[in-house]
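Following up on my earlier thread - several people asked me to post the actual chain instead of describing it. Fair enough. Here it is, all 463 residues.
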Amino acid sequence: MRNLTTYLLIFVLLSLAGCKKDVLDLGGTTSTYGADSEDLDDQGLPKLKFKVELPSMADTKEYTIDLEQWDIPNDGTDPLKTTANLQAAIDWAHDEGYGRVILPEGHYLVGEEKNDIYQGGIEIHGNTEFVFSEGAILEIDTNDKWNYCVISLDGDNIIIRDGIVQGDRDTHVFTPRESDGNTAHDEGHGICVWNDSNIVLVDNMIIRNTTGDGSLVLEATDVTFTNNDIYNNRRQGISIVGGTRITITDNEIHHIKGTSPQFGIDIEGAGRVDEDILIQDNYFHHNTGGDIVNTSGKNVYILDNVMEQGEGSTYVDGPIVSWHKTHNIIARNTITMVDGSVNGRLGYIQYSGGGDKGHNRATYVHDNVCNSCGMYMYKSSDADVRRNKFYGYFMSFTDFDNAILVDNLVTYSEAHPNLRYCWSYRFNNVTGMAEGNYLGDELQDLPLSKTEPYTMQCVLDGW
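Reply from S.P.:
Thanks for posting it. Predicted structure:
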């Protein structure tokens, strides 16, 4: 009898250890059950394996543009003359093999009509480091075009740094489009990184006051934005419309407002490939649509960012929004909401219309702090959610397979007592596993199962 008891005890301990491994093993290639195995770091996140190539100038010859020689105004006047002569100087420097071109101090007003809908600015050629001297501003002249680029990149291996690029937001003429009468004019950009411009660095720039985006990335590869201040643009801070190996780090992106979607960063390929994107250590605030939206990106890392709604600002969608068919690693972000969006006070929401998501990778949501906000995922599968703190709102899943919840904390808000119980952790037709999750200082029994979908009674009762 004693031996039988011993064997039973060993069997139970082994069984518990086996179940625990499914949930808690963070190293090696162990991953969320049901999803593809990943090569994980010691915190249980997929290792970042892509590296964005930075520009390298083989020719270090330097040329400071001679304003007198080229007859270039630098007092904010005569945009046609400024555009033509500044472009001629840039073209000459490129033809002469200068790798570093310096724009002297001054206010350069540019703009040239290219067609009925596009206003051209300045083009920078490949293998060029274009440097603004202190106090140099490049501004697009007032125009009535749907599209413009203050700076357009033409070629590979380009650096833009240390200056101010400015749109015409405050004076733009919103002429109705002949085809439909629309006056959105939402394609006015500060810096355009086109599909024939790869290996690009935009560093220490102020990009502001455009009718569309601070910067547009369109089918480009190896693009880095770092140390920039991007603000007061009408549509987005940065739009990635097809991009592979994109890094956005240590920027301040704020006060994006005027025409939808109004996000700090929008990944929206519209049928193009968006893949291997790192968004890290940025400060987002006062962005009307939200801070980051990913509609199409795969292998997108959203790490260590600070996102604040900001006093006096209103979110439309919320700080972080992803779509069903994307793949995201969302970790160590600090999110603060003041009040709700159309989605309530959700710091992270995954939208979905259901159906095949096109891949079998898990979404990782680890170690985030959400002040006065929570998260919600629905009509999808495979989420690895660990060690997050959701202060004053709920964590919720609906019609979801394989939700793994480990060591999370949810607190209820004194201002919203109806959220205390049912709404703190909310499940409707959900499979998965849960362990070590708390409501305040109370450990919660969340009876998720790998095989039997779970719905909370209060959901069934319609609470």
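The chain has a mean pLDDT of 91. That should answer part of your original question.
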